[in-house]
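Task: sequence design from structure.
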């Protein structure tokens, strides 16, 4: 009974932390997809902590277990939104989550009629859960180097490692011929402890990370030499060398280093002869960028806009302009350009050249009149 009391206490604390995260997000006026997915993940954490607790009524398992089967999809989507600043939710993402839940219900309802078929379905669901866990881990590794937010870099690996472990446990239960982990199993206390650690880490990440200075303030920060950025609160004072910011601006605007193919932050730090962590701090806390690729794309897209607006380059393919600016393929260029300007590169070029043509036609008329 002593271990059971500890188990229930940890689950209660976990539920309290997750509910507090949801409350704080709502009080902050959560509007981003990451915030909504985080609240959904937190609600799922509360649900899982309660549903897998000792003494939870077995009569409720038939609807509880299918709902838990959709948690790996929510976690994968949260990881995408949290660690990929360019991620956008699509309708098929919601369809994936709904499909997993519906499949979980089908397995649960079919267990009494065909245990063998339900067991095979459970193993299939386990494979999907493992694939989603691996996808979340890949997302973390893929974007870790480009992440400029120091706290997010420190917390993301710990959060993902523990969450992937929990999802793997659920998937393992599927290989054991049951759709998801059985509540109240002997391993309940370690699961409760893992949930509590996850809740604390997510809470630290939610309450500690402050928004960076908007990227639009980068020019003002460089020009004024104020490394804090004009919109940063006085209590969040950050010491960033203004000389480093000016040297960085020179590399980008004069030498156009952003055009270098495959430019990484380590190579840029070596070019500036500064430690990589100092350059990360300068770009994030001095200029307000959360992601190194977003920092480079700011200059690349400005370069591309000039080329697309140049009538002498009317016949130059968009792909050539994109690659000259530093992009390695057309797809990422199109997505980044539309996110920055609201239109595709082709639409931007057509509108810009059309305005120039109209100006060229009307200019002689003004001179004759």
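Answer:
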């Amino acid at each position: 009974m002593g271990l059971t009391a500890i188990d229930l206490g940890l689950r209660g604390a976990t539920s309290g932390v997750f509910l507090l995260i949801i409350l704080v997000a709502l009080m902050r006026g959560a509007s981003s997809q990451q915030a909504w997915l985080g609240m959904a993940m937190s609600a799922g954490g509360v649900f899982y902590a309660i549903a897998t607790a000792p003494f939870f009524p077995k009569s409720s398992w038939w609807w509880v277990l299918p709902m838990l089967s959709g948690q790996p999809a929510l976690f994968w989507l949260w990881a995408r939104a949290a660690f990929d600043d360019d991620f956008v939710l699509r309708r098929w993402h919601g369809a994936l989550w709904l499909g997993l839940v519906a499949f979980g219900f089908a397995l649960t309802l079919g267990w009494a009629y065909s245990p063998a078929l339900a067991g095979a379905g459970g193993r299939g669901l386990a494979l999907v859960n493992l694939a989603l866990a691996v996808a979340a881990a890949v997302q973390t590794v893929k974007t870790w180097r480009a992440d400029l937010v120091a706290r997010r870099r420190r917390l993301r690996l710990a959060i993902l490692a523990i969450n992937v472990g929990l999802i793997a446990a659920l998937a393992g239960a599927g290989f054991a011929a049951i759709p998801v982990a059985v509540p109240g199993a002997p391993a309940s206390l370690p699961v409760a402890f893992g949930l509590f650690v996850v809740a604390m880490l997510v809470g630290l990440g939610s309450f500690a990370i402050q928004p960076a200075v908007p990227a639009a303030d980068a020019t003002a920060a460089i020009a004024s030499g104020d490394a804090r950025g004009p919109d940063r609160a006085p209590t969040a004072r950050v010491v960033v060398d203004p000389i480093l910011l000016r040297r960085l601006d020179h590399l980008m605007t004069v030498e156009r280093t952003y055009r270098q193919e495959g430019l990484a932050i380590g190579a840029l730090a070596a070019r500036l002869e500064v430690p990589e962590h100092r350059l990360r701090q300068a770009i994030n806390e001095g200029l307000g960028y959360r992601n190194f690729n977003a920092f480079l794309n700011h200059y690349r897209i400005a370069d591309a806009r000039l080329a697309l607006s140049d009538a002498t380059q009317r016949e130059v393919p968009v792909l050539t302009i994109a690659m000259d600016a530093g992009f390695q393929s057309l797809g990422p260029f199109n997505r980044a350009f539309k996110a920055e300007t609201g239109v595709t590169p082709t639409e931007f070029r057509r509108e810009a050249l059309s305005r120039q043509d109209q100006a060229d036609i009307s200019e002689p008329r003004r001179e004759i009149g």
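The chain has two domains: 2-208, 215-368.
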